[in-house]
UniProtKB/TrEMBL annotation:
Spans through the membrane: 12-35, 73-102, 109-131, 137-158, 241-263
Ranges of residues in domain ABC transmembrane type-1: 74-263
A GO biological process held by the record: transmembrane transport
UniProt entry tagged with the keyword Membrane: yes
Membrane topology, from the record: Multi-pass membrane protein
UniProt source species: Paenibacillus crassostreae
Protein name: ABC transporter permease
Length: 278
């Protein structure tokens, strides 16, 4: 019995060490960018490579902010990421509510159509989307950058699966008490679904924050560029400015980390709930 406990303990420690090692490997590019952002230009491409700076060199951050409109790019990305995430939650949760709680003709067929759109790669429709947005006069606007991301089939599917875990007897009891469909959705179902809403918001925010190709197509004015496009303005034909580029990379990571920290409790709640259900 004691041997079995020791074996289980050693196994648990080994698994945790493996996870820590994998986390370090995955984080290595960020760690490298962080320390490189504090290196002087002459120390970045030395051989053997130098990772840790001798002292904190902040000029790279100053150059990154002075050479590009980095703060404007961050504001642009924040606007499109927050707006798209908000609409994805609103539209997706309403659709998921209908698929999870209502019975109507063609429900399964409509749901399969929604799932079927997940098999269409976004790049295959990017030209037609651009032509549509261009004809609508939305080039160089926030609406043009956001409009094709307002609905996500995967988010609808994720929320529908979560809503199906909520007891229908709860809705029936609410009906008996005179609670209507929208009141049940807004005051009962949504508060119960905070974990999945947090997951949808975080995934949507990061997805929009990292968008590159579509904003590159629908914007041609520098002040309308999001961060992922704007950061490339630090590259010149004569060469790449590694220090300011790494500094800008670290700066644009801050909002994503901030969003994760805000919704961390809800996210961990979802993971714990999933583990208990499993």
């Amino acid at each position: 019995m004691i041997k079995a406990r020791k074996a289980a303990r050693y196994k648990s420690i080994a698994i945790q060490l493996l996870y820590v090692a994998l986390g370090i490997v995955v984080s290595l590019p960020i760690i490298y960018a962080f320390f490189t952002s504090f290196l002087k230009p002459a120390d970045i491409l030395t051989y053997p490579p130098r990772l840790f700076p001798n002292y904190i060199y902040m000029q790279n951050y100053y150059d990154a902010l002075q050479m590009t409109q980095l703060l404007r790019f961050i504001l642009n990305s924040l606007i499109i990421a927050v707006v798209a995430s908000f609409f994805r939650i609103v539209i997706g949760s309403l659709a998921a509510y209908a698929f999870a709680f209502f019975n109507f003709k063609g429900k399964q067929f409509l749901f399969f159509i929604v799932l079927g759109t997940m098999m269409i790669h976004p790049d295959t429709v990017i030209v037609t989307n651009y032509l549509t947005v261009s004809r609508m006069g939305l080039v160089n606007t926030y609406s043009g950058m956001v409009i094709i991301f307002l609905v996500s089939a995967f988010n609808i599917f994720m929320m529908r699966q979560y809503f199906m875990t909520v007891s229908h007897e709860l809705r029936d009891a609410a009906y008996v008490d005179g609670v209507g469909n929208f009141t049940f959705f807004y005051k009962i179902l949504m508060p119960l679904s905070k974990p999945v809403l947090a997951v949808v918001f975080i995934s949507s925010f990061i997805n929009m924050w990292n968008q590159y190709m579509w904003p590159l197509l629908v914007t041609n004015r520098d002040e309308m560029r999001p961060v992922q496009v704007g950061i490339t303005l630090l590259n010149y034909a004569e060469g790449v400015m590694y220090g300011p580029t790494m500094a800008a990379t670290i700066i644009v990571l801050i909002p994503s980390i901030f969003i994760f920290l805000i919704f961390r409790k809800q996210l961990m709640g979802d993971i714990s709930a999933g583990a208990l259900k499993g």
